[in-house]
Amino acid sequence: MTSPRIAWAVTGSGHYIGECIEYMLTLDNVDLYLSQAGEEVLKMYHIDINEIRDKVRIFRDKAASAPPVGLFYKGYYHTLVLAPTTSNTIAKCVLGIADSLVTNLYSQAGKCRVPNIVYPCDIAPEMKTTAPGGEVMVYPRKIDLEATDKIRTFEYTTVVESVDELKLAMQQRLDSLS
């Protein structure tokens, strides 16, 4: 078997998506999982999936049962990263709903005790985020912030609030493996 890899999932959030993808591409042994909305968002932010495909393997949300999640049971991944992550995906993960490729990844990683790093798009009552035209202010709803707080309590889950925190958490994870 090859050495374990990183599973990186992108949902429909544009929250610093360019910076997340740029950082992901600096890492070795990464497989990128795209939700259908994640694919749409990459296009909106002019991120070329073909350029990404040259550097990482890409799995797309095309099957109802999300077959690639079985790789967690084979020890294929040492870490799951969800970055950036929509409030919809966070809410589903908190409720235990695994009805898409990304929510299945989160569920199966947890069942296999694979640590994960989650970068939610809704982390504060008032915050800047990236939109296709540049930075904008957003005001996450109370229910979205409550879901972000709840996922912080989940086993094997590290929640980060910035790209810098994402980089630090990933480096700590990689250091713990060596």
Furnish the topology, listing elements before pairings:
Layout: E1 5-10, H1 17-24, E2 30-34, H2 36-44, H3 49-53, E3 57-60, E4 77-85, H4 87-95, H5 101-111, E5 116-120, E6 127-131, E7 134-138, H6 142-151, E8 157-159, H7 163-177
Parallel strand pairs: 1-2, 1-4, 2-3, 4-5, 5-8
Antiparallel strand pairs: 6-7
Helix pairs in contact: 4-6
What would your notes on this structure say?
This protein has 178 residues and is α/β, with parallel strands linked by helices. It has a single domain (5-177), classed as Flavin prenyltransferase-like (Rossmann fold, 3-Layer(aba) Sandwich), CATH 3.40.50. The protein is built from seven helices and eight strands. The strands form two sheets. A six-stranded parallel β-sheet has the order 3-2-1-4-5-8, sandwiched between helices. It has a two-stranded antiparallel ribbon with strand order 6-7. Helix 4 (87-95) crosses helix 6 (142-151). The radius of gyration is 15 Å and the shape is globular. 39% of the residues are buried. The model has no long low-confidence stretch (mean pLDDT 92).
